[in-house]
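Exercise 7b. C-alpha cells:
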C-alpha cells in the first residue's frame, strides 16, 4: 500500500507522490520507492526495502506534513507502528537485499548459461543455510555475488532493529527461504544435482551457450515486455510478438554483428528460407490454443446449463413442497385444525 501511495505509477486518487517527493527534497533524501515495468515481481521485494529505509521518514511525513489523510494514509500510519507487520516487511526487505536483487543483477549481467551453474548452486546452498538459521546474525551473504551487489545499509539496519528481534521476522524470513528453495529446485533443475548443466560443461557446449543470455531465464521480464507490446500493438500476431521478444532479449543484433560477411549471408539466407515454415508453425500453435479455448468455452457453457437445470429442479421441488404445505393447511382449516393452531399461537 505504501508503494501505491508514495511510488511512481501509484494510486492517483489516494496517493501523495508529489507531496512525498517535495518532503524528500526538503529533507535532502532520495525516495527509494520505484516501479518495474519489465519485472513486476521485484516491486514486492525492492519496495519492501524502501519501506524499511523510509520507516522514520514515513512516520514524520504522515504526522507533521500530510495535510489531509485519506483511509490509505491513515492505514499506513497505523501499520508502520505495528511491529508484527513491520517485521514481515523487514523479512521481505532482507530477502530482497540478500537474494532477489543480486539474482536480478546476475540476470542482467554479461554471464551466460555456461557460467550459470556455480551461481545456482551457491543460491541453493545459502537458502538451505538460511532456512535453518536460529538468528539473523547467522544469515550470511554469498561471496560469489559480491561482484554484482553488496547488501544495502537498510538491510543491515534492519538486522539491528527491534523488529528483527521478533519471532515473526525470523519465521517469515525462513518461510520465504523455504518456498524459494522449492521454486529454485523446480525452475532451475538443469543446474542442480543430476541436471543437464549441473556438472562441468564442455568448452564447445559453452561456446554455444554464450549466445543465450541469462535474461531468458527471467520469464517475468518477458511477460512484462509482452504486456507492454500488447498495449502498444493490440492487433499484432503471436508470431510478431515472439519475434520481437526473441530479437530483443537474445541480443540477436549484437550477435549478428560479430559474424563475418559470409556467415551473415548464410544466416540471413536460412532465415528467409525458413520464414514461411516458422510462420506456419506459429499459426498452427495459435490454432491449437484457440481450439483449447473453444473446448473451455463449451465446458463452461455445459456447466452453466447444468447449474441452471439444478437450480430449476431445486425451484420445482421447493414449489411442490410449498404447494403441498398449502394444501395441507387448507384441508386443516376445513377440519378446524387450523383454527385450533391459530388460537394456540394467539
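Sequence design result:
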Amino acid at each position: 500500500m505504501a508503494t501505491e501511495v508514495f511510488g511512481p505509477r501509484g494510486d492517483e486518487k489516494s496517493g501523495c507522490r508529489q507531496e512525498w517527493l517535495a518532503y524528500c527534497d526538503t529533507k535532502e533524501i532520495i525516495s527509494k520507492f520505484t516501479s518495474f515495468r519489465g519485472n513486476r515481481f521485484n516491486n514486492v521485494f525492492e519496495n519492501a526495502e524502501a519501506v524499511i529505509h523510509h520507516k522514520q521518514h514515513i512516520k514524520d511525513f504522515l504526522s507533521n506534513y500530510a495535510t489531509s489523510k485519506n483511509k490509505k494514509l491513515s492505514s499506513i500510519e497505523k501499520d508502520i507502528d505495528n511491529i508484527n507487520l513491520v517485521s514481515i516487511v523487514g523479512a521481505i526487505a532482507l530477502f530482497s537485499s540478500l537474494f532477489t536483487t543480486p539474482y536480478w543483477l546476475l540476470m542482467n549481467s554479461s554471464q551466460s548459461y555456461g557460467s550459470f551453474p556455480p551461481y545456482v548452486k551457491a543460491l541453493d546452498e545459502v537458502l538451505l543455510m538460511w532456512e535453518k538459521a536460529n538468528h539473523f546474525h547467522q544469515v550470511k551473504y554469498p561471496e560469489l555475488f559480491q561482484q554484482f551487489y553488496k547488501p544495502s545499509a537498510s538491510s543491515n539496519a534492519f538486522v539491528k532493529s527491534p523488529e528483527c528481534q521478533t519471532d515473526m521476522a525470523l519465521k517469515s524470513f525462513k518461510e520465504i527461504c523455504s518456498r524459494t528453495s522449492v521454486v529454485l529446485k523446480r525452475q532451475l533443475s538443469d543446474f542442480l544435482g543430476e541436471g543437464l548443466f549441473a556438472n562441468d560443461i564442455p568448452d564447445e557446449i559453452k561456446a554455444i551457450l554464450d549466445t543465450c543470455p541469462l535474461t531468458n531465464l527471467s520469464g517475468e521480464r518477458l511477460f512484462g515486455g509482452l504486456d507492454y507490446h500488447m498495449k502498444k500493438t493490440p492487433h499484432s500476431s503471436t508470431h510478431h510478438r515472439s519475434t520481437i521478444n526473441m530479437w530483443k532479449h537474445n541480443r540477436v543484433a549484437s550477435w549478428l554483428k560479430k559474424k563475418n560477411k559470409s556467415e551473415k549471408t548464410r544466416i540471413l539466407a536460412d532465415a528467409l528460407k525458413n520464414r514461411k515454415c516458422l510462420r506456419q508453425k506459429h499459426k498452427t500453435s495459435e490454432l491449437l490454443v484457440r481450439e483449447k479455448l473453444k473446448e473451455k468455452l463449451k465446458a463452461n457453457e455445459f456447466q452453466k446449463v447444468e447449474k441452471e437445470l439444478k437450480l430449476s429442479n431445486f425451484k420445482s421441488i421447493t414449489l411442490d413442497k410449498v404447494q403441498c404445505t398449502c394444501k395441507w393447511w387448507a384441508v386443516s382449516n376445513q377440519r378446524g385444525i387450523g383454527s385450533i393452531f391459530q388460537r394456540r399461537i394467539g
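Instructor comment: The CA atoms of residues 275 and 281 lie 10 Å apart. The mean pLDDT is 77.
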